[in-house]
Amino acid sequence: MSWGVNWKASVGLLGVGIKYLAVTMLVPLVVAVAYGEDIWVFLVSMALVAAIGFAVERTDPDPDLGPREALLFVSLAWLAAAVIGTIPYLLAGYGTASTVGLQTGSFGALVGSIVNALFESMSGFTTTGATVLGEISTDRHSHALMMWRQLTQWLGGMGIIVLMIAILPEVAVNGAQLMESEAPGPELQKLTPKIAETARALWLIYFGFTVVYIAILYGLHLLGMAPNMDLFNAVAHGFTTLPTGGFSPEADSIAAFSAAVQWVVIPFMVIAGINFALFWHVLRGEAEIMLENAEFRFYAGSIAVVTAVLAVLLFRGAAPAIELGGATQGVTENSLRQAAFQIGSLLNSTGYATADFAQWDTHAQILLLFAMFIGGSAGSTGGGVKVVRWLIVGKAIRRELFTSAHPDVVRPVRLSGRVVDEDAIRGIMAFTMLYVVLFALSAVFLGLDAARIGIQLSVLEAISASLATLGNIGPGFGRLGPFGSYLFFPDTSKLLMVFLMWVGRLEIVPVLAVFISAMDSR
Amino acid sequence: MHVVIIGAGEVGTSIAASLASDHEVVVVDIDPDRAEQLKYELDVLTIAGDGTTSEIQSAADAGRADMVIACTDNDQTNLVACGTAKTLGDGFTIARVKSTEYLRTWQGNEGAFGVDFMVCTDLLTAENIVRVIGLPAAIDVDPFASGLVQMAEFEIGPESPVAGQTVSEADRFESLTFVGLFRDGEMTIPRGDTDIEAGDRAVVIGSPESVQAFATDIAPETTPGQADEIVIVGGSEIGYQTARLLEERNLKSRLIERDADRARWLAEQLPNTVVMEHDATDTEFLSREHVDDADIVVTALGSDEQNLLVSVLAKRIGADRVIAVVDSPDYVTVFEEIGIDIAINPRTVTAEEITRFTYESVAENIAVLENDQAEVLELELTEGCALVGRPISDIVSEIDARFVIGAITRDHKLVTPRGDTVLEPGDHIILLVDSDSVGEITAMA
């Protein structure tokens, strides 16, 4: 079973990554110490993860990756991170009523608990933000575990592979191929001659934004403008905003905080959906590169337009009068804030909420569904199809229409004045088609699978479940709303959604390419 | 002046011919037969051999040469020849190239490759085409005094309002001078009472605006200054450069290229040009894409035969004006006789450009008219030369050479010459001169 791939090399390198994942567990450990909570959960987890890492590393101590091995490695790395990430959930919840804790009562309960933990962990690393955690509160779960849940999103945001390239010299050798497979968007932008420096620059920008954001949030708390935003919450939300994650340790998400906090969160969510390479140019004093970038302009433009439309809908009463976000009908500030927040959150796949949009009128929900399809920018932390792909698909279609009337005209597709390669266009067309097909088939499967155990999904629920997991968005509509849960789905559906989050984060291609190459060489 | 010319092709021969009478010319060509033949055609010394080697260049006494002109058909040969010449002596080196890439490199660092002046055939030709397109009614247009002054040659059509008028009636523009009139291929110096007949070709010198206004006057039916529909046939370097220059002037064109890869490349380089991939000799295609409605068709295909075919085809289906690139100078008249409006020969264009450098520092710019019957020169007048300090009418009556001063620029301002205008040192004069009198006039400046 060679598959034409030197799988040992991929797995060997995986061990290196897993080893370092143990180090990241220091963060929840510190939280556990600070809150006087049980420190054994994370000590044992760390030991276990490190042991697994060293064991896996032994399969190939000196890994050498070719292009296929790189694809396999990237696919496996994200799966492994999700699997490893379940350990704290399972250990912490063992013997309690936690939905993600290890249950040993029966075989069915055992499987169910592991699937739940895997769902939560994959949702974290892929920055989806869909949850099966029954009750979200620091009373039911320890602060340390909640911080782990937030941290997984921060690690997954800029990409665990990019992080590995930035800090591990043995990974940096094959860095360009790896980053290409992981980075969101159709093409890899090398900012510096050395890929490790590019990775470091991206992580530094990401880190810098996170620090500034946490400081502002905590500053608001100190100024008395955000009573609930204590240091724990500031850090916890700092970990999930820039990676377009969406997890919150508060059951009410951002609705638990003051309007001032909500206004601060909006720009940072928008920033998270912008190509981070553009910030690199801005830092070097080349702000015009950002302003002239077609994707950035389209991204900013679509947020502005959709927000404006939604604000008008809310102002005219598309939301029920009494609910968490407060009344919007006839209230300008709240209409604008709710519209900007929900669009800033859903368009680039963050998944926070300040209102239960699952209870809004259908026409407003359809608008949100449309926004979910757009996605973030290439090179951002956002999910979805990505703005640049839609732009190129749109331009390619316009060209097709033009050339049907003028069959002899040769017209390259241009983006920001640069010619887009025909191979890239074909790849983008195939990706977009694949995305839509996978989304549609999954929606059908989820509907049928739920009916199998006697649950009727509404059309909007089935569609949004599929889209919210494949696009790494998080919340859907109906029972899957921002304050709802994915807990009621059968295990098979949850596993499908784990798969969707996985392939959605890696933009489908690496995972499917590994499968296809395996089947072809048989 | 000792001049070494490397390459005895059409360009080299044409340059040698115009220099042979006044200068000491050595022509080097790799083909012994060609060298032998030229020895009898022109009063020059010929050497057979590889002009890039120092051995042959020494034999041609290139070390002592005032000017070395490398004008073979091969870019690299010309560049190496100039480099070699620079190691032997300090003559002024001129290289003819086809590739605009070499020109760009050279422009970034003048003196690169040991080349003092570089003439890019294809770019030069494209610039000529674009000038002609910019003035639709003109047959030939050349800028002088860094664009302050324009020379233009027009053919007077039968329905032109000026046909039948006298020169003084037609010349209603303050800053425009009628300098020459060609009738049946013969040049006359026009006077105020000279009649203008249909079929005449008129040469005027003046400010670009007045030339533009004059063009509108004599050919009102053509859109002034701008042709709306321009079709370029053939994505050769000339075709590409033409489209690029048109883009720079905000004129949109359509470019037809047969080869798929080349068409793709062109489309990538030219964002504001519609590039079509098709065989331009397909009449069905031409009418489907409404090439028959085109105001201007430029043919810039690889061979004269193809250009001839497409030009005739374009003319036949009803294109207003057809400009053809003609590789062989012998065919220029053939093209024009069968009704192609303008035939542009890249070699003539190149020879003109190089020749202007051989008038030492005196003549700064030159245009050759009507198969070398007359030339338009730009001269900078030096202190104490024979032309300064006297009214123009005095000079004209004194010299029996045939010439007309068309424009004067003084301190970068245009001065319209009149009989009583006194020339001053430092003036640039733009004048039309009979080819036989060129040496005499330049000697006076």
Which short descriptors sum up this protein?
heterodimer, A: 522 residues, mainly alpha, Helix Hairpins, two-stranded antiparallel sheet, 3 strands, 1% strand, globular, B: 445 residues, alpha/beta, Rossmann fold, six-stranded parallel beta sheet, 34% helix, TrkH (chain A), transmembrane (chain A), potassium (chain A), cell membrane (chain A)
Word description of this protein:
Chain A: GO terms for molecular function: potassium:chloride symporter activity. Chain A: Its main location: membrane. With 522 residues, chain A is mainly α. Among the domains of chain A are: 7-194, no CATH class; 415-520, Helix Hairpins. Helix content of chain A is 63%, strand content 1%. Chain A is built from 22 helices and 3 strands. A two-stranded antiparallel sheet of chain A has the order 2-3. In chain A, helix 5 packs parallel to helix 21 (491-505). Chain A is globular. The model of chain A has no long low-confidence stretch (mean pLDDT 85). By secondary structure, chain B is of the alpha/beta class. Among the domains of chain B are: 2-115, NAD(P)-binding Rossmann-like Domain (Rossmann fold, 3-Layer(aba) Sandwich); 230-350, Rossmann fold (3-Layer(aba) Sandwich), CATH 3.40.50.720. Helices cover 34% and strands 26% of the residues of chain B. Chain B has 16 helices and 22 strands. Chain B has helices spanning 10-20, 32-41, 54-59, 75-88, 100-108, 121-134, 167-170, 208-218, 237-248, 260-269, 283-288, 304-317, 331-337, 346-355, 392-398, 438-444, and strands at residues 2-6, 24-29, 45-48, 67-70, 92-97, 117-120, 138-144, 149-155, 176-183, 186-188, 201-206, 230-233, 253-257, 274-277, 296-299, 321-325, 342-344, 363-369, 374-380, 403-410, 413-415, 428-434. Chain B has a 6-stranded parallel β-sheet with strand order 3-2-1-4-5-6, sandwiched between helices. In chain B, helix 9 (237-248) links the parallel strand 12 (230-233) and strand 13 (253-257). In chain B, helix 6 (121-134) crosses helix 9 and helix 6 crosses helix 14. The longest helix of chain B has 14 residues, at 75-88. Chains A and B meet through strand 1 of A and helix 10 and strand 14 of B.
